[in-house]
Design goal:
Elements lengths: L14 E8 L9 E7 L4 E9 L2 H5 L4 H11 L8 E5 L2 E5 L3 E3 L6 H11 L11 H10 L8 H11 L10 E3 L8 E4 L4 E3 L6 E3 L1 H12 L3 H12 L5 H29 L2 H18 L1
Antiparallel strand pairs: 1-2, 2-3, 3-5, 4-5, 6-8, 7-10, 8-9
Length: 280
């Protein structure tokens, strides 16, 4: 079994590593559950190590940004508390509990989405075309078929359908990123893609990630935010849907190369065929 490199924690004074266990899941990176003891207090705590690795660069993940957003939204208790930002990674609070899964209702999911959009807005924003251009650099040449190149240039030269003022956005609010904590809270994890952005894009990403019916999801979201006219939000979500599939496709191509995983390549090609049909 792969072992954790304890030297990564060398900047922490008076901290002893008791145990380290790799965590399953985590598609953009591989994380570890660490148990540590602080010497002065003799206090034990469990933290998640979120590394800065080759994969972080490929997926355009900034642990510095992740730390800052977690620090900024800590009073809301909607996310794990950040513990330490180190040279090679980020340590955050371990949330004891179970993945929410399908037991989490759509109503609660959309309420969490609405709450996230009222949090303090990060100082950096998601630029979809810039993100796509970054992914493109990490897709190997043999994946770049004429069809994929056509799709890439189409979206990179198309105007973004930005409709609403920026809010705090998670950009990956799948049920797989929600923990039902031991104290009863629903805690959202994995804030590595969080940034300022159009909330209707974030909502479209949430609808896609959870396989929601758009009309009902938008209606629930608008109710939670006290928005009486849902039509502009329905239109915005519809406009963003192809962009969500475009970003997901590029992400899967990067994942196929980064993790050498055929399943990623199959998902990428399915989305590619869907987008080709859309363009036709």
């Amino acid at each position: 079994m792969e072992s954790f490199d304890q030297s990564l924690l060398s900047a922490l004074q008076d901290v002893e590593l008791i145990s380290a266990k790799p965590l399953s899941g985590g598609l953009s990176n591989r994380c570890w559950l660490l148990k540590i003891c602080t010497g002065t207090s003799g206090q034990y705590s469990s933290l998640v190590w979120r590394p800065i690795a080759k994969s972080s660069r490929a997926f355009d993940v900034s642990r510095h940004h992740e730390y800052r957003v977690l620090e900024q939204i800590a009073p809301s208790k909607i996310a794990p508390k950040p513990a330490y930002l180190l040279e090679h990674g980020l340590l955050v609070e371990w949330i004891e509990g179970e993945e929410a899964g399908n037991e989490l209702s759509d109503t609660v999911l959309l309420k969490l989405q609405a709450e996230i959009h009222t949090l303090p807005v990060p100082h950096w924003r998601l630029d979809v075309q810039q993100k796509a251009a970054h992914y493109w650099q990490f897709i190997p040449q043999h994946f770049k078929t004429p069809e994929l190149i056509l799709i890439f240039h189409y979206f990179q030269n198309k105007q973004l359908p930005i409709k609403f003022a920026d809010t705090c956005c998670h950009h990956d609010l799948g049920r797989y990123n929600i923990i039902r904590a031991a104290d009863g809270r629903n805690v959202v994890i994995d804030w590595e893609y969080a940034a300022a952005g159009d909330p209707s894009l974030d909502l479209a990403l949430t609808i896609n990630a959870n396989g929601l019916e758009p009309n009902g999801a938008v209606e629930k979201y608008c109710q939670h935010r006290g928005i009486s006219n849902k039509q502009p939000w329905l239109d915005a979500v519809a406009d963003w849907q192809p962009w969500c599939e475009y970003l997901a496709m590029l992400w899967f191509f990067v994942g196929a190369e980064t993790w050498q995983d055929q399943a990623y390549l199959e998902s990428a090609n399915q989305l590619l065929q869907k987008l080709i049909l859309l363009l036709r």
